[in-house]
Amino acid sequence: MKNFLYLFSVLLFSLFAFSFVSCKKKTVYEIQPEIISETKSSHNWYYFSENSFVKIDRPQNVPSSIPKPWTEAIRISSAVVESRTDFEMPKAYATVNRSGILVFNGKQAFIYNDNRIFSGRTAGNMVFAQESPVFSVYRSTFFNENKASFQAEHPFLISFNTQQNISYPLINIENLSLGKNDEIIDFIYDGKFWTCCVKKTDSEKISFSYLTFQPKENITLLSPYKASEMLVISDTDVSEFRNARKPKKFSSAPERLRELLQTIPKNVNFSVKVSSASGHSPREFIKSNNPNSETEDISAKAMITDTWIGCLFNDGTLYLNGALFERPLMNKGRTFGIRLPKLPANYIYGDFVISGTMLYASWEETSFYKTNRSGFISVNLDEILYK
Asked: What pTM does this model have?
């Protein structure tokens, strides 16, 4: 067993996180020895403003705006890291809801807007299919005032071309034999099948159905003009969808993740969503000593790549192990603990990625199901891990 760091201290505090239907209080376990303070120059803050991002000294100084439901707010809604075998530095990508695609390339970050696709639609669920970033969009009949403006185009699955930096539709709702008022609000992609949750709105009545489809060829070669003929579609039910989405026990999580988090006290419960570089839909695992306890789990996001693994908790506690691009093993192969700058009350960290030696992590201010300020932090890991 590896000789992991044990010089960690416990700090418990409360903050708010949101879900689809409720506001839940989280208790977060913090590890340190390396705390990134506000006085260090190894990090920078950015916030989203319309179709761009702006540098700021700290999140609480971002101009306040009218809080919006998380489905309507400009925020990072999903993020992925690519896996490369050509010795080029892996890039990372994120969907910025209502705005565009954020591309991280080492120390550089760019946002590529596309109002044609992102305006009036909720974007997220980014995965990799045939080595290309793919994500979904849907419109909310509840929040969109001008429903008629979406009748001409009704996309569901979108691909981001990493060479031309443009987003283009692969599959429209009609390609799946769905009606003009139907929306796919969620899906799980396991590398072969796409299992979808369909929201149907008919005369203000809402119902749900479920389907699974499989492309006959490389899905990134499809277009709405020919997708209908290239998909094998079958009906499924809520049980199959829930089973695909249902969290698994942490004991069945990938071994590298279990080793990474083994220093967390056994009496601490947490949940973690795990993504793989150039991978499919995230998998969720829960560690719970008492399933009947009312104590809320700590939430985290984890990323597994060929050379490194990381896990970021929503209080900013980050575990890292392995080697970054063109760098030796960090901390002589032992797990390294980093504490990102502490956020103000009601703020949380979310998705994170690493490109080269730069860490990018989303942050946002939340209140129940609404989001106010949002953005991301960049951290130069060279100055922390390899100093």
From this structure: 0.89
